[in-house]
């Protein structure tokens, strides 16, 4: 009789959990509560252990779907991760990239600059750091330098540049791919400078460039603007230099062309 009574109570409780979990918009609680209840009884968990285990399932599922949403919203050309990256092709950055993937640079509003010739994996690593940031709960936006300038120019013309910069500061990470691919007009360079200034010591930037810093004066049309910008970017930054031949051309016999041969020639074996 007592057993029948307990079963009835627990059925009521299960129904109530289903209702309450739906009200909390936490559907996984219903499933976890039922499944973990048996486990808890068998293993003699305390009430606290059980509650913690149930909530943990909901939170980790939320984090995973939150990360997926942030990755989709970031605007990556293609989603790439550090697990997909062949560090044997870039052994010099293995440790630095691994440390950055833990996301510590974001909480300190530090920047990352990836320099190197075409095809060496700059966009791949920048994207991978963005994916890692999204997984750590940061909002991320990825675009090329040209796209950023277009976006800032549009905001400026509409008289809402300050609002746009304030909005962008709410993103923990902004990735600027291909700095130096095209030179900027004076106005564009100034807008880009404002983006860099507005994030300085507030939120992180990851930038990639085919050019060494010494070539940035030509991109921004003005040595003084470039110098002031580089100063703010690298004040708190990790600079990763990728080397060698294009990964795209590996194994195609093209990396031995004189125009592509580099000092650290990576001949395929
Ligand atoms: P970059 O931006 O320096 O021009 P990308 O990051 O676009 O180069 O790399 C070119 C292509 O080669 C991409 O598809 C990228 O995923 C791949 N790639 C480059 N380096 C590596 C690597 N070390 N391991 C795996 N894939 C790589
Ligand atoms: Mg690239």
From TrEMBL:
It comes from the Bacteria. Keywords: ATP-binding, Nucleotide-binding. InterPro entries: AAA+_ATPase (IPR003593), DNAC/IstB-like (IPR028350), IstB (IPR047661), IstB_ATP-bd (IPR002611), P-loop_NTPase (IPR027417). Residues 108-240 form the AAA+ ATPase domain. SUPFAM superfamilies: P-loop containing nucleoside triphosphate hydrolases. The keyword Glycoprotein does not apply. Transmembrane segments: none annotated. The keyword Repeat does not apply. Belongs to the IS21/IS1162 putative ATP-binding protein family. This is IS21-like element helper ATPase IstB. It comes from Jatrophihabitans lederbergiae. The gene is istB.
């Amino acid at each position: 009789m007592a057993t029948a009574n307990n079963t009835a109570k627990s059925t009521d409780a299960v129904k109530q959990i289903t209702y309450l979990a739906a009200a909390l918009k936490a559907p996984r609680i219903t499933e976890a509560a039922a499944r973990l209840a048996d486990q808890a009884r068998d293993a003699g968990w305390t009430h606290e252990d059980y509650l913690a285990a149930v909530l943990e399932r909901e939170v980790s599922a939320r984090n995973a779907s939150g990360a997926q949403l942030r990755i989709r919203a970031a605007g990556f050309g293609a989603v790439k991760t550090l697990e997909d990256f062949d560090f044997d092709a870039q052994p010099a950055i293995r440790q630095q990239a691994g440390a950055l993937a833990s996301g510590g640079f974001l909480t300190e509003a530090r920047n990352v600059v990836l320099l190197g010739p075409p095809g060496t994996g700059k966009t791949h690593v920048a994207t991978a750091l963005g994916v890692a940031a999204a997984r750590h709960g940061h909002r991320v936006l990825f675009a090329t330098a040209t796209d950023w300038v277009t976006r800032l120019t549009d905001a400026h013309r509409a008289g809402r540049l300050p609002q746009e910069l304030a909005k962008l500061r709410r993103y923990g990470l902004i990735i600027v791919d291909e700095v130096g691919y095209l030179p900027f007009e004076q106005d564009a360079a100034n807008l880009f400078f404002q983006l860099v200034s507005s994030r300085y010591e507030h939120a992180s930037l990851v930038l990639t460039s085919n050019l060494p810093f010494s070539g940035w004066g030509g991109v921004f049309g003005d040595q003084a603007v470039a110098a002031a910008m580089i100063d703010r970017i690298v004040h708190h930054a990790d600079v990763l230099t990728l080397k060698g031949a294009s990964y795209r051309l590996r194994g195609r016999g093209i990396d031995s062309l004189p125009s592509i041969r580099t000092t650290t020639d990576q001949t395929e074996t």
